[in-house]
Structures are given as C-alpha cells and as structure tokens.
Amino acid sequence: MNSLCSTLKTTLEAFAVNKAVNGNKGPIAALLVINRHALEQQKAETLVWPLKSDDWKTGKQGQVKGLGGPATQKILSEHGVFRMLASEGGRTSRGSMQLMIDYIELLNQYYSDNGTIDLRECELFWVDKARGYFERKPFVLSIDPQWGTRRAIRHLLSQAQIRQNEGAGARFVGSLMQHMVGAKLDVLLGEGNIKHHHSNQNDSGSSRSGDFDFEDMVLHVTSMPTEALLAKCIANLDGGYKPLVITSSKGAIVLEALLENSKDGKYDGRVDILEFEQFLASNVIELGKFSAAGRKATLHKIIEVYNHIIDTVEHDLSMRIELGDR
Q1: Distance between CA 314 and CA 40 in Å, rounded?
Q2: Quick one: pLDDT at residue 76?
Q3: pLDDT value at position 137?
Q4: pLDDT for 89
Q5: HSE on the CB side for 224, CA within 13 Å?
Q6: CA 81, 96, 311: angle at the middle one, nearest 5?
Q7: What does the alpha-carbon distance between residue 90 and residue 94 come to, in Å, rounded to a whole number?
Q8: Is pLDDT at 168 greater than 90 in this prediction?
C-alpha cells in the first residue's frame, strides 16, 4: 500500500498486532465499519475531534453501532472485494466494544500528535488486511507413506494451532476438529444423516443437544473440555441421551477428572470419551480395509467432504484442506 503515509501505516500496524487483528476476520470486519462511520462524517465535514466512543454505541450501550455482515460486505465491494469476510461482521463478538473504544482512542491520539488523519487511508489499510485474510493459504494434509495416519492428522492440527496462536479469539483448532468429525460421520453414515453447523453457532437456544445429534447419541467436539461442556453432558444424560465427547488427549484427561468430581462421581463412567486423532485414524484404517491404497482413498474422501462442509457453512476458504501427497 504505497499511498499510505508511513507514519499512519506504522501506527495502524502496531495496533493490528497489539489487538490481535491480523488473520482474525471478526476484528477486521468490525474495524472496517467503525472506521467507515468516522469516514462518512469526515466527508460530510461534520467530524468533531476528539471523537467520542459513545457515538459508536447503540442506544442500549450493548453493541457497537452498525456492525454486521452486510455493512462489512458493502465496504469491501466498493473496493472490488466480493468474498464474504464474516456473516456477522463482528456484531456478536464480545471484544468488539473494547476494540472500538481502543480504536477511537488511537485515532484521537494520532490526530492530536499530527494535526490531521486521513480516514480513507485507514480504510484502505483495513481492506488490505481483509485481502490478506482471503489470500491466506489453506491447511495442507501431507500423506507420506512413511507416516502413520495419526501423525498426518496431528500435523494438520499443528497447522491450525499455529494459525490460532497468530490470531487471538479465533478457534481454528476446534473448528477444524468439528468439521473433520462431521466429514467422517458423513462418510460413515452417508450424506444427509448429520446436520452441520457453523463452528461459532451456539447449541443453547436451539433444538441441538451438541455438535452432532444422531439416534440417541449426542456428539460434542472440543479441543479442551470445560465445566460448561460437563453441564451439557449432564443435561444430555438427564434427557435420556448418550453423550460422546471427542477431544484431544489432554482434553480426555481433563474431562475424566471433571466427571470424577461432579456430584460425588454420579456421572463418572456415563460419558464416552474418545481422543480425536484416534477417532479419525481408526476409522480411516477400518474403512480403508487395512490397505495403504484404502487408507489413502478414505482420507481423500473425508477431506473432500470436509471441504464441502467448509464451503457450505463456514464460507472461509482458508479453512479448506489441500492434499499434499508425497
């Protein structure tokens, strides 16, 4: 972005790093709308410095004014970017309010230090961040004949963990786990028997009992169980359903401890717990009929279904998986 003032660019880049905006679609979407609000006032010559963060709050002070997917997409489309950044556009993010307050403070400080600020240039900066998000490469699943199936899956998870560490608030590991499990269930049970949901969609307030419901079983997929998950499992049991938790190896230990300590161990042994890598690897081996060609073909099929799920419910192409055969 050669046209952007180097001082302003440096200031915005430092903000993006400090607030974990880079690679995080929610904050990028929110900042585009927050900045546009100020830009429209600047164009109308009605902008008064210093800015007041209260002007960006809804009447009930509960949310940032104007946030939402349509508002974000309108801005992006004006810059020739037509891919969906975030369906909610930062509206439901708990951190959007603080992000707005911090950004208004940043703009005020920059204006105070420099006597001027070009909010159009700021918008170009955040649009560029959105483009960078879209250009992010998908995950790669390497299928090395010398690797065990679990190692290939672990390598995939490590990529998601690295990306998650780069953007606070983004749960790439949990999302990848959820949709990989969903893809495996589609391959095993047949497409249409399992309903898939956006990884940020809450179970509560809906007819869902977990991430996946099938017959009398409720499947929960998580990288690390919490007390909240334990409460869901107890609700499943009390409702006559059988909960199955698919989690990490560390997560399995944590959940076992939570169950042992819950209500004097009343629910201990009543929740099935499977380790994620084992859950996928065992099915790949079995569905592949224990042959190298069969394992590879099964993995290919699971990834194909997984990518279809990502395209359908997540709309985030960087969550797709490419096969890196060796």
Answers
A1: 31
A2: 95
A3: 77
A4: 55
A5: 5
A6: 40
A7: 9
A8: no
Tokens found for residue 280:
């996928």
Q: Alpha-carbon distance 114 to 312, whole Å?
A: 46
By C-alpha distance, which of 255, 244, 284, 313 is closest to 156?
284
Neighbour-count burial of 139, counting CB atoms closer than 10 A to its CB (0-12 exposed, 13-18 middle, 19+ buried): buried
- The half-sphere exposure of 301 on its side-chain side, counting CA atoms within 13 A, is 18
Rounded distance between C-alpha atoms, residue 296 and residue 325, angstroms:
9
CA 264 to chain centre: 36
C-alpha span between 151 and 156 (Å, rounded): 9
Domain boundaries, the chain: 6-134, 139-325
Say what the pTM is.
0.67
State the Cα–Cα distance between residues 209 and 218, nearest whole angstrom.
6
Please check whether residue 287 is in contact with residue 258, taking contact to mean a CB–CB distance below 8 angstroms: no
Do the Cβ atoms of 64 and 90 come closer than 8 Å? yes
Q: Which two tokens stand for residue 273?
A: 């717990």
Distance CA 50, CA 55 (A): 12
pLDDT exceeds 70 at position 251: yes
Residue % of the chain over a pLDDT of 70: 89
- Tokens 């401890």 found at: 257
Q: What is the 3-state secondary structure (H, E, C) of the chain?
A: CCCCCHHHHHHHHHHHHHCCCCCCHHHHHHHHHHHHHHHHHHHCCCCCCCCCHHHHECCCCCCECCCCHHHHHHHHHHCCCCCCCCCCCCCCCCCHHHHHHHHHHHHHHHHHHHCCCCHHHHHHHHHHHHHHHHCCCCEEEEECCCCCHHHHHHHHHHHHHHHHHHCCCCCHHHHHHHHHHHHHHHHHHCCCCCCCCCCCCCCCCCCCCCCEEECCEEEEECCCCCHHHHHHHHHHHHCCCEEEEEECHHHHHHHHHHHHHHHHHCCCCCCEEEEHHHHHHHHHHHHCCCCHHHHHHHHHHHHHHHHHHHHHHHCCHHHCEEEEEC
